[in-house]
Amino acid sequence: MRRRGRGVVRAAVSVLAPWAMLGLTAASAAHAASPASSPTRIGSARALPRGTVVTGAAPARTMLRLTVALEPRDPNGLRALATDASTPGTPAYRHYLSLAQFSRRFGATASQTGAVQAALRARGLVVGPVTANGLTLPVTGTAAQVEQAFSTSILEVRTPGGSIDYANAQAPALPRSVAADVQAVTGLDDLALERPQNVEVAGHVLRAPASAPHVVTGGPQPCSAASAAAQHPGGYTADAVASAYQFAGLYGGGDQGAGQTVALVELEPYSPADIATYQSCYATGVPVSNVDVDGGPGAYTPGVSNDDEAALDIEQLIGLAPKASVVVYQAPDTGAAALAVMSQIVSDDSAKVVATSWGVCEAVAGTSQMSSENTLLQEAAAQGRASSPRRATAARRPVTSPITPRSACRSQTPPVSRLRSASAPPACTPTVPTGRPCTRQDRRRWRACGMTGPTARVRPAPRPEASPRGGGCRRISPVRPRRWES
Questions:
Q1: Do residues 374 and 380 lie in contact, with contact meaning Cβ atoms separated by under 8 Å?
Q2: H runs (alpha helix) in 231-361
Q3: Contact 125, 145 (CB under 8 A)
Q4: pLDDT of residue 219
């Protein structure tokens, strides 16, 4: 649904008028019925970002992928168990639940799940099987079907950046008999998609680390080509990152992640050839496999696809934990993706460590979505899974900064710190005007030259993270390395 520069003439109307009128239409469509079948709203509709205008109704045949989060049994008990299982000194410390135990104790009951599935199918939606943890349902339908099923209106809107998105005018509604069993419905809009959470310091130019002495950490060592590439401003090899985060002690004790499986959350495709080139350079053999969620993000297309974040995440993990296994959970970047991916990870029950560099400010995500994500993270804790701080506490970009990350191009040649599978063509000139922000076109030109932006930046400065109280964002310090625990 995300389209740019479309040559269709539409009247630019104010946000409030069509929002309200379409809302009345949806409300009037809800027929009078018994109290058990009367519609009950779930959560609230996301507020439109400032400067966004409604251009009309979304095309009726547009296919939407939704994730319906079910209410867990005993949410207070789940919250307490997740805390106690992770707190030293408590009786439940490290007494984790298996997936089956969790599902029986906290997942929605079979009758609750069946009632919700039946209600959605009766309204024309395609409903998949409940996940193994008993907490989420995959749902698909056209915009027209979704409008009727949830008594809402799906609108087409134009953002200040010019993209054409969609959004629901009212919170979703379901019959009162099943509404209490639903925690959230995600995917009804694409206004707050998760983005890579880059940390940028205005006016700060990263210097080349050429003058810094090389520190042997005991981890993977770069090939000569990688060492040369890291001399560009902002470039760091894997061992330089390991040294900055004090991994030498872990490596010295023989701890390189052996026997561990790490789940990575990615919302874009990546090039397997790039990962193979990186592993060849660092003489690693980390097994990397994929799990497609919601159909996956699509195949990687050289010169077209943008895999800066996904490849960076995979390569950084390989460079820091060369004996671990990596499972990439990849999905399209939609409003329902984050919840669907996390639910799949905890339901598969195979990875002890979960990491992501994608996020959105909690104040933008909304309380319903954050509550359902927190439920899954509590499940991860109850099952003995460690989540990266950026996901576990929903580390988010401050709401006042742009959702789409941009890095400053401050040199005539782009910063490079990893090898690409392609070789640079003779006529390649990967230069940009000094000082202006990097654009996607810049990055595509770099990729055509066999290069990209830095794969691993040392991030000694605190990262932005949303306040758990829902207002604004706070900042936290990076997590120090710790030993892999069995």
A1: no
A2: 238-244, 248-252, 272-282, 308-320, 337-348
A3: yes
A4: 92
